Amino acid sequence: MGPGRRGAAGTLRIRTEGSRCCLLVTLLLLGGFREALAQTDDGKSVYFWETGPWGRCMGSDCGPGGSQSRAVWCAHVDGWTTLHTNCEQGRRPSNQRNCFRVCDWHKDLYDWELGAWNACVPVSARTLWGSRPFLCSGGEEGVQTREVGCVLQSDASPAEDAICEYFEPKPRLEQACLIPCPQDCVLSEYSPWTTCSKTCGTGLRNRVRSVLVPPLFGGAVCPNLTEFQTCTPGPCTGPEGMHSLRVGPWTPCALPQTRTARQVKRRKGKGQGLRERAGVKDPETRELIQKKRTRNRLNRQESPFWDIQVGYQARDVTCIHRNGSAVGRNLCTPRDLPPTVQSCVLPKDCRVTDWSEWGVCSKACVDSASPVGRRARSRRVLQFPVGEGAECAAPEDSEACEPQGEGVPPCSTYTWRSTEWSDCRVDSLLGQQDRRRGNLTGLCGGGLQTREVYCVQANAELLGYLEDLREKDKASRPVENQRCEGSMPNRSQLCQIPCPIACEVSPWGAWGPCTFENCDDQAGKKGFKLRRRQITNEPTGGPGNCPHLVEAVPCDEPGCFAWRLVGLDECVPGDRRPCGPGAQLARVQCVNGNGGEVDGGLCASSPAPEPEPCEVPCSRDCVLSSWTPWSSCSQTCSSKTAEGKRLRTRSVLAYNAGEGGALCPNSSSLQEVRNCNEHPCTVYHWQTGPWGPCTEDPSASALNASSAGAPPGACATGMQTRKVICVRVNVGQVPPKKCPDGPRPGTVRPCELPCKKDCIMTPFSDWTPCPIACDAAGNAVMRKQSRKRLIIQMPSNGGQDCPELLEEETDCQVPKVCPGFRWKTHKWRKCQLVPWSLRQARPGAQETCGPGLQTRAVSCRQLDGTQADMGECLGSSKAMPAVTQRCQLPCQDDCQLTNWSKFSSCTADCVGVRNRKRALIGRSKKKDKCKNTQMYPLSETQYCPCDKHNAQPLGNWSDCILPAGGRPESLLGVRLQGDVKECGQGYRYQAMVCYDQDNRLVETARCNSHGYIEEACIIPCPSDCKLSEWSNWSRCSKSCGSGVKVRSKWLREKPYNGGRPCPKLDHINQAQVYEVVPCRSDCNQYVWVAEPWSVWKVSNVDLKENCGEGVQTRKVRCMLNTVDGPSESVEDYLCDPEEMPLGARESRLPCPEDCVLNDWGPWSRCSLPCTRTNSRVREAFPLRSPSVGRACPDTSDREPCGLNLNCFNYFYNITDWSTCQLSPNAVCGSGVKTRMLDCVRSNGKSVNIKFCEELDLEKKWQMNVSCVVECPVNCQMSAWSPWSDCSQTCGLDGKMRRRRSVVRASRGDGRPCPPQTEQWRPCPVRPCYRWQYSDWSECRVESVVCGHGVRYRNLSCFVSDGSGSGSGSGSGSGSGGSVDEELCGSLELSVDGDKMINLKEACTLPCPGECYLMEWSDWSSCVSVCVKGAGVDFGSVRVRSRAVLAQEPENLQLCPDQAWESQPCTGGECHEYKWMSGGRTNSSRSAVWCQRSDGLNVTGGCPPLNPPVDNSSCEPPCLMPRSFCSEAAICMCEEGFTEVLSPTGQLDQCAPIPVLEIPTAGDKKGDVKTSRAVNPTAPATAQPGRTGRTWYLQPYGPDGKLKMWVYGVAAGAFVLLIFIVSMIYLACKKPKRPQRQQNNRLKPLTLAYDGDTDM
What we know:
Shape: elongated
Number of strands: 106
Distance between the termini: 18 Å
Radius of gyration: 62 Å
C-alpha cells in the first residue's frame, strides 16, 4: 500500500510550520494535488493498522481444516512503525484465519471453469477519454473478458481460486479482439428512366438502383432505391379509365360438408355387397375378384399413404378505382367474369412415425486414431404430402458415437509384412552390351534380391511364426494394400554373392631323390622321385579345390636315406708336400627322401662319397681356376630322343714354365658334362573330382540324434565323397598302383546337412467384393470374384513343395432381382367438379360439365414389378409423379375431339414432312364453331427430324500409350520380376466430337464413331552406354619393384533415350576408360649370366714365358631366372644395366714361378650409416705359391665406403591405392584395394625387397583394404495404375489419367527413371444433359386487367458441351439447346441441385395507378467484408433487393416499403472504394463520385468528404480522407490532423496527431493500447471564418513523428520546473531546532523523513 493512499481519508498530511506564501506557491505549482494537504488538528488519527500478506496454509489434514496467519502492525501516516497502543484496538485486523489446505489428490476434484467470452468492447471505451470519436480503419481494437473460477468438479460448486492455482496458473481473463468498422449500404448506379406511366395527363416515371453491399456492423442504412419524376406526355382528349376489375387470391381449399359422409356410406355399402357376393363364387373366380378389388383400391387412393380429398376454393372479383378504393362492380367495363370457384386438393401435411431406436455404432472397437463412429435412426412416412401440404422431413438421421460397454475389443490395425528375400541375382545389374548376359553361371559380387510386400492385420506375428514353425493357419491373412498406412517397405535391396577365390600355387620344386614308396616297408623294389609345389593363395572351399600338388616318376634303386654333398674342403697335397697331387674331403649330410637332414647313422648302409682328387700347382705348374657351379639341367626328364645334361667349366689362370712344370690341359678338359634327370618322362599324379552332395552318414545317425552343438542352419552331420584317380601326364587315367600311396588324397569328408525348409504360404485372402451390375433390361450381369495367397518361404533342401494354385476365381451369386425401385402410376379417376350448389349462381354454369380435378394412385415397385415399400422409392428413385391434374368435363356446347393420332412415318430425312390428325366427335361435328380450324385444328404438320451429323476431332493427342501386357501388379503384393515393358509401339488417341444439324452435341455413336481417332506411335527404347571389352593388361611398368599396369575400354556407343550413363571417361580422351593397378616385378626375375673368362690374350708376347699384360673376355647374357636356375636368354633391356658384369678385363698373366691368386671374392657390405671412415674389403687366396725370392701380392683389397657409390641406405616406399578391384565375374559389390611396398635405395632405385627385410625395417602399412563398387541399379517403376474415372462425366474436356511411381530409384550408373509418371487420354465425348427452367411467363390473370394471378415456367431437357461458355467446339457456333426430354430420363429431377420443382407460382398484376414492389433483383456478386491490404476479413456476403414502382403521384403515400435480403457466400472479392473526379459529359451528374476497385460506380462505401461540398474549386480536387477545400482553393486537413505533403507540394495525406492516453489504475491492459489521432475537444467540422492558411507550430513532421524541437522544449520545461521547486524549498525551509524524538528507534531505517514539504 503506497504512502499516498494511507490513512483514514486517504490523503497525505504535512506540517504547516513555515510561511503561508510558500504554501501558496506550492499549491499553484502542484494544483493537481489540492487534496493532498491536510491539517493535523482536524480530529482524525494519524495512526492506522497495516497488514502483511497471508502466509502458507498449514495443518495436519488436507481440506478446509488448515490455518494461515499474517503480520499486523501499527504505522504512522508518515510511513514509520509505531507502538500497537497508538492505533485503535477495536479496528485491529485479524492475524489468523481458517484456510483450505491443498494436497496433490485434490487435482482430480477441482478444476478451472471457463466462462464464455463476452462481447468485444472497444479499447477506447475503457480509457480516460472513452467517449471521443475516432477514425475507424479496417477494424477497431477491442478487449473481451470472461469469468474464470475454481469449482468442485462433482457439483460445479465454487471454490477458492487458491486451490486451483496450486496446480496450474489461473487462465487469462481477457483477450484482444477486433471490432469491424461500420459498413455503410452500397448501391449501384440508377437505371435509365422508365417511360411515363400514362400516355396522357400527369404520370410518373421511375428509375431504380439495387443494393450491392448491405449495411453491416451498424453502418448507414440503405437510402431509397427508387427515384420518381412526374411526367406529362400531353393533355388527355377523352375521359381517363378510372376503374378496373381486380381478382383476389383463392381462399384455402375446403370440403363441402355433406360429401364425406355420403361417400363413406356409399363405399361401405359396396364393400358389404362384394363380401356377400364373394362367398358364392368358386376359388378361381374369388381370386380374380380379389385381384380386381386390390387394383380398384389402388385406383381409389385407398392406400394408407394417400388420403386425397377434392374440395373447392373461391375468390373475389372487385372493381377498383385508380386511387385504390373499391367501388361497385357496375362501374367496371362489362366483360366475362373469371371463375370464382374451382376444384382443389385438400392440403395435407406429411406425417411420419417417431424416430426408431438408434442403430448400432459403426465403430465397434477402440481406436485412438479415430475413436468416433456414426449411428443412424430412421422413420417411416405415414401420410404423403398432398396439395400444398408441408413436405416430408428427412427420413434418416445420424450422429457421432463411441463404442459403449466394457470389454470393447481394440480395432484391427494393419501393418506391412513381407516374404523372404529371393536369391541374390547379378543378371539384373548387367548392362545391355555385357556379354555375360548369355552365361549367368559363375557371376558373383553385388546383386539384387526382391521380395513381395503385403498388408496384414497387425496382431498376426509372422516372425515368431516363422521361427517357431510351422502351423500354416497362424500366418496372417493378406488384405488390401490400401488398409496399411505409411510408406511401403523396400521391395528390393542390394545383396552380395561371395566371389570364389581361385587357388594359386607356386612353381614346381626340384625333383627329389629316388625313395621307397614306404620306407617302413622296403620289400619291393619300387621307388619314386617326387616334386612338390605349395598353395600360395588358399581357395574358397579349402585346399581340395586346388590342382595336384605332388608329381611322381618311378625310379630304380630307391633308398630312404642318402648322403648329400654340402661342399669340398681345401685341396691337401699328399705326403705332406707343399704342392702336387692331393685330395679334397667331401662335406656331407644324411638326408631323407624329403631332403630333411637326419642322423648320419641312417645312411650307414650307403657308402659315403669318396674324397675328390685335386692338385695344388707348384711354382712352375699350370694353374687352373676352380670349377664353376653346375648349370641347370637341360631337360626335366629323359627319353630316347632327349637326355638331360648339365655342365661346368674352368679356365687357365697361369701357364707352366716350359720344363719341369705340369702342363696345362687341352681345351676339352676345361669343361665337364654330366647326365641329369635321367628318369623317364612318365610323370604320375593323383587327380580328384568334385565333392558330391552332402548325404546322411548312416554310421553317424545315432551321433546326430544326440548332438546339440550343430551350427545354425545345420541339422546334422553328413558325408561327402569324391573320385580319386591316378593320371599319367599327357596320357590319362592309369591303374592306381602307378601312383604313390603316400600323397593320395582322401575320398570321404564330413559335412553339415542343411535343414529342410518347407514351403510356407499365407492363407487365402478374403474374396474380392462382388459388384452388382445390371444391364439395360434390368437383369443382373454375371461377375467374377477372386482371392489370392502368397508364398512367404520357398522350399529348399528337400522340403515340401508349394502348391501350384495361388489364385482362385469363382462366379458371384447373382441376385434374382436387380436392386432398384420405380414409381408405378395407376389410372386417373373420374373428373370431379365443384359442387353444383357452389357454382350454380355463376351465369352460364351447367351442373354436369366444366373444369374439375382428377386424382390417381402411385405405388412403388421393384424392377421386376413386385410391390415395394414407398420409402424405397422416395430414397432411391426419381421424383414422385403427380397425383392430381386439372380436367375438363365437356359441356353440350363445347367442342369434343379425339386425341391426336401418332405422327405418320417419314419418307425422307430433313426434306420430308410428317403429320398427325384428330377428329370431331358426337354433336361437335354439326356445330359451326367447332368447324373453325383456326380454333380447333384437326391436323398438324412437321418437318421430319433431320439426322445429319458431322464428326470432327477435338483437342490434343494423348500420350503414347503402350498396349496392356506389361508386368501385372498383384492385388495383395507387388511382384518385381523383371522390367516392365517401357518402350515399343503404342497408340495415341484424339477425341472425336459429333454434332447434329443444329450444331448440338450428340452421342458419338451417331457419327458411327467409337469416340476416338487412334494412331500408332513409338516410344523409343533406352539404349545403354556401350563400351568395348577390357583390353589385356599391359606389362608392368617396372622390371624391378612396384610399377603399374593398365587396361582400357573404348566408347562404342553413347547412351540415348534414358539408357545407362557412361562411366567417367578420361578427361583428355573422352572416348576411353582406363583402369590402372599397381604391380610388382621380381627383381630376380631376370639375371645377368656370365660365361667363363676366355683364354688370356697377352699384348706383349713372351713366347718363352707366355706371361705378361693381357686381356680376358667373356659373354654376358640376360636370362630368365627359374627355380632350377637361369633357363633361357631374353632381351638385355629386361635386366638391370647397372648390375651387368664386365665382359672384358685387363690384367697381368702371371709368369712361371709367380704367385697366382684366384679371382677376387665379393666385396664385404659397408656398415651403415655410410661414411668415408668405413670401408669394404674383398679377398683372394693363392692358388700357386711363388718360387723362392718372389712374393705374392696382397690377398685383400680395401676401398672406402661412399654414399650412393658403393654404400646405400634402404627404406620402404608405399604406392598409392589401386582402384577397387572386383572378381572377374563380379559386376559390383565388395572388392579390394591394394598397394605395394617397395624397397628403395638411397639413390632412388628400386631393389629387391630382401635388402629392406635384412635390415628389419618396420612395416606399419596395411597392404589391402576392402572397398565397395556401387552397383548399377536400374530404376524400377511400378506398373501403371488402372485408368481413373473421367475427370468430367460429360462434356468436351474430360480426361482419364493413370499414374505410376518409383518402386526402386536408380543407383550408381544404373538406368535413370523415366520422367513420365503420369499419362492421360481423352474420355469419349458425351453430351451434358440437365433439367433447366425456362423464364417465368408474364403474370396471367384470366380476362381481367389486374389482381392475383399465376405465372408459369417450363422444365425442359437442355444439352451442352460442358464448357460453360455455350459455344461449340470446332465450328464456333452454339452447341447447346433444348432436346427431347427422354434424354434426361436417367437424371434426377432437379435444377441446380434443387429437387423442389416449382413450375407455377402466384403473382400480382398491378392495377392501373397502383404502387407496387418490383421483382427481386439478381443476386449481387459475392463481396468480401474486409480491409484491402491489411489481411482482415470478416466473411463474404451477397444481396438482392426489391425497389418500389409508382404510377400515380397521388398514390405515393400508399407505396410499400422497399426490401432487401442477404446471404453469406464464399470466394468474395475484396474491394476498395475511392472518390473520383473529373468532367462529366452529363451535366446532371456531379463532378465527384465514388468508384469501386472493380470499376463500378457506386453510392456509399467511400470515406466521408468534409465539408460535404463540391471540391471542384481545388485543382486537383481534395479527395484525401479528412481533407477539405479551403476558401483560398487550397486542400487542408481537419483539426486533429496534420498535412503531409508530396515532393511536388501537393497534399499527400492527413496524418493524425497522436493524443497520449493515460491508463487507469484498474486497466490491466493499459500497456498495450495505442493512441488515436483524434482531438477530443475539437468539433468534427471545420471552424468557420478560417481564411487562407493559418501558420502555427507543427509538432509533427511529414513522417508523423515528433520533431526535435518538441523534445528540446519538454526538456527545458522540466529543468525550469526543478529549478523553481528547489528555490521554493530553500526559501521556505526553517533552521532545524534540536529536539528529542521519543520514537526514534521505531522509524524505518530506509527513510529519514523530517516532515519537510519536499518529501
